[in-house]
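Recall that a protein's primary structure is simply its ordered list of amino acids. Everything else, from secondary elements to tertiary packing, is in principle encoded there. The following example makes that idea concrete.
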Amino acid sequence: MRGVTLAGLLLAGDVTLAAPTILWVSDPVRPDETVVLLTEGASATSTVEAVRLVDGSTTEPGGAAALPTEWASLKTLQAARQCVKTVL
């Protein structure tokens, strides 16, 4: 869907481990669709949070606005070391 931009953040369930790395995210996705994240280091306890980015014109490199502080937790359907599936 044009105008929908998703930024995802994967948080590890165990704080002693390094944060998971997101290698690829399915795109585009619409509300109520499944998002697939190919990862390294995720776990069954990983959670996914997302934020809607503001639609608008692009800026000069380095001139981007700060990310919003209110992120929504997404329902995780399946989580393993190399793949996490969630619903947007």
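The chain is about 0% helix and 40% strand. The longest strand covers residues 72-79.
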